[in-house]
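Lab channel / #folding
Pinned by the channel admin:
"Please post every new chain as: sequence first, then the structure tokens as a reply. Keep commentary short and put observations after the output so the thread stays searchable."

First post following the new format, from NK:
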Amino acid sequence: MTVALDPDISSILVTLRRDGAGGTMTEERWTPPEPRRAEPWLPGTRRGWVRALGQVSGLLLALRTEEADGATPPDPLADGLALRAWSSLTGPVLRDLARPTVPEVDIVDLALVGAAARVLGTSLCRWRAGAPADVVTAVLRREAAVHGCSPEHLVAQVARVQGVLSAADELSGAQVWWALDDGDPSTPARDVTPALRD
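Reply from TO:
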């Protein structure tokens, strides 16, 4: 038996040689099936994504409300810029009721959400170091009380979602998701390799 690849590698020519009476030779062309590509997936449960997206959306809406009442949050939190980027980036995640869906990501929206996480974290760190609370810290503290969590948790949720959506691959995204896990007891076991099982 001899095997030869076609130059375009779309099929393989297999030549079978039978020795003995008649010395027949047959050729068969075998075309390999298309490789099965796993659909992109997001780590975590739908419940975990709903919680994360809801907490951050509430935070950004509260900052926008403060701005409408006359406060001046720093960029990119001002003028609803971070809120619009967040909505654009995360809106498609929960459209499929069966599971969280990987959205088409706009790099500008990713950058704005990342910058918002840095601004939120910086404001909170200054307050924790003894500086007076600014509008960002005041809103973070109020929203954290609403959700029964720490202000740091809300900042981590922004970073968590941005990190997952900007990850180079599913495994990296899963590592980010679980690294910032909030310890919800209803969260199933942390199997970060569903693509490897297929």
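NK: The CA atoms of residues 160 and 179 lie 9 Å apart.
TO: also worth noting, Residues 46-182 form one domain.
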